[in-house]
Each structure stands twice: as C-alpha cells, then as structure tokens.
Amino acid sequence: MNDEWFQFAKEVKKMYGKDFVPLHEPTFDNLEICNVTDCIQTGWVSSVGKYVDQFERDLAEYTGVKRAVAVVNGTAALQIALKIAGVQADDEVFMPALTFIATANAATYLGAIPHFVDVSTETLGLDPFKLDKHIQSIGVMKDNQLVNKSTGRIIRAVVPMHTFGHPVDLDPLLDVCQKYNLILVEDAAESLGSYYKGKHTGGFGRTAALSFNGNKIITTGGGGAILTNDEALADYAKHITTTAKVPHSWEFNHDEIGYNYRMPNINAALGCAQLQKLDGFIASKRTLTQKYVNMLMNNKDAKLFVENPNTKSNYWLQTLQLKTGVNRDTVVQKLNNAGVMARPIWIPLNTLDIFQMCPSGDLSVTYKLQKEIINIPSSPIKFSE
Ligand SMILES: *Cc1c(COP(=O)(O)O)cnc(C)c1O
Question: What CATH topology corresponds to 4-26+278-376?
C-alpha cells in the first residue's frame, strides 16, 4: 500500500524520529523535576504551599486576566466558572454540540440544561450569527431575561469553546450576549496561549475555565483554573473551591456547601515549570503547522486547518480537514495502521443518549464537520533549524 497517507505517515514518523507517534505527549525536563522534588523534600505536597499562589499569579500575568484560581481539573473549573457567573438550576446554557463532554457535564452538575447550537466552518467553534438567528426563532425577552418559548426556561449564559486552540469569533458573540442579556463564560480549556484581536482568550466573558490535563498544551498532571477580571468573583471562587471555610486559626466554620476542588501544591509546582515553557511549545507547534501544510500541499484528500485572520492560535492539536466525500474512518485507520496516531473530532453531544432530551438548534455544520475533522500528532518538537 503506497498511497499518499502511507507516504504522509512515513514523513511524520521521520520528523518525530519515532516508529509510533502519539497524538500529544507532555514535555518535561529538569525544571519540573526540581519543582516537584522541592515539594517532596519540604513536605508541601498537598493543599497548602507556595506553588499554588505562584501558579495563580503567573497564570493571571500570562493571560492578562486579573485573577486565576487553580483547581483540581478543567471540568471543576468550568462548573465553578458557570456557578459564580450566575448560572442556576433549571437555566438553559447555549454551547456548541461539537465539544468535549466536559462542557455539557459542567453545566449539568449545576442542574442547568445544555442547549446545543451550531458551529462555524471558519472557526470550528460556536457561530454567533447562526446563534442570533436561532434565538430570534425560539426566544422571547421577559423582564430583561431571554426565555426559551418552548420550554419556558431562562437561557442564562453562552459557553463558547475555542476548538483545538482556534478562537471563536468573539466580537459578534459579545454583541449577541449584549442584545439578549446572556452571560459569557468561555471554555478556554484548549486555548491557553491563543489570542483574538491581540487579547488572550478567557478574558472576554464574566469568567472562563482552563484545563491542565495531561494532554493539554501545558499540564499539571490534572488541573484547571477559573479566570475572571472580577476581584469579588475570584475571591468567591477561591472560597467555595476550598470548602467555603471561614478564615479562623482553629475553628471549622463553613458558611455554605463548598467544594474540595483546590489544586494540590505538587501539581501547581509542575504547572509553574510548564508555564515558563509555554511560549516555546507554541513556537514549536506553529513550526509544526508549517511542516504539515507543506507535507499536505499535494494531498488530494485533505488540508491543514489554519488560524483565522485577527486570531493567533496556540495550535494545541493539529487539525486536518478532509474534503467532502473523503471517508474519515478510512483515513484514521490508515494513519493509525501506519503508526501515526489520528483521532476524529467528538461525536456531537446532542446525539449521546445522556443529552438527547436537551434543546438544540439546527446543527447542519456540526454534522458536516464531524465527518471531516481529524487530529494528528501535535507534541512540540525541538526543531533544529
Ligand atoms: C480538556 C477540556 C476540558 C476540561 O477537562 P479536564 O480533563 O476536566 O481538565 C473542558 N472542556 C474542553 C473543551 C476540554 O478540551
């Protein structure tokens, strides 16, 4: 079998210098070892320690968002980001159907109901123009709140997700939020280091969530963070993610049902080291994108998905877009058989049994992209030139 995918796989393996190339691996060196060793030697591995505070300060500085609150994972970060932004039980929350399950789970944990809407072929993320049209057909304003005419529920918020690091079109989305009094909460789990019109993602809404899972652009083993420009909300996020304990030298007084979601110090120690390398990872991923673009120049089946004007993507996961009619699973199978890990985009969440009862809009672009989008190996490489 000597077709163009076999040829492509050969080049990818050569570039990575491996017989099997995984989708995404974390990159560590001595800095991570030093920080983690420091935690172990001093005994500060758990819920108290200097690295959590430092990681939160470093994240705020890097993203340009006023405050960051580190937590156990990205799903917990999104749950708390939604809660402190004002999402309540029985509210509906707009989100793309084409996202990782965590986006919908986080809303569901609060008793809210995901309301799935379509994505755009330009960004792979939520389509603000189509959202506006959908609202015009299903929504009505009552007491300055958007209400779903068919369910009678308040639609409280909208959660865009910056797919594989590519920012959604935020300006028109902000207009939609303004027009219908919707709270914007960004799922920025995949977009640390991605910018829209020069401003870091995660700083556009009331709150946002980051993830530092093992496969993300930087990792703390497992971890996440809530971002917000609102000091009071940040303090509240810190309070409820640390069991809502009222500060006191010895008394265990808690003023609401809180969560034990705090990021352990040993994980934050990893994060501090990783964050110092983020710009290097992004530079490497951007070079990788150019290499893939060149490798695919004459490929008849696919092209690489590249960033939009006005955005800077972190290129967390490199993304292939197949031409219409090319069989996705055949390509995925060929690449995996040839030792190059490839994976299709998610199954639209509205089609999962667990979310079938949720409201949704027209999802024609979601279904089209589901058949065309594949991720290929994306770990940062040390390019010599
Ligand atoms: C990774 C991710 C999250 C959070 O995942 P965790 O594994 O809980 O850290 C949330 N949303 C999206 C879109 C993600 O990719």
Answer: Aspartate Aminotransferase, domain 1 (3.90.1150)
